[in-house]
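note to self — DONT lose this again. spent like an hour looking for the file last time. sequence + predicted structure for the chain T wanted, 112 res
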Amino acid sequence: MSNFVWCHGPSCHTNHTQDRIRGVKGSKVLRTKKVKQERWNSGENLSMYSYFCSNRCYNDFANTYVREVIALHPRTEALETPIDVQVETRQDWTGKDYKTKVIKEVDNNTNP
């Protein structure tokens, strides 16, 4: 199995950088970059860095294919996280007390 995948950026092969130039004089091309699959971006650690050589290529892909991605997993209702808002008294760097609101997530799945 190869330790590389080709960048999935739709215009990766058009970006004018020295490391994309391939070929001999008279027949040079700009080629899509390879993304090395390493321990931090493969297996269970898959992320955008597993398939794209740069943030530019990732953003190009996301902007080009956002409608298709959303069609695969549409959001039909809002997501909610239960919280509790508490007022805490804290001290600033001079030692003066002030009150601030702190959001705490509530775990509704506690089993007695």
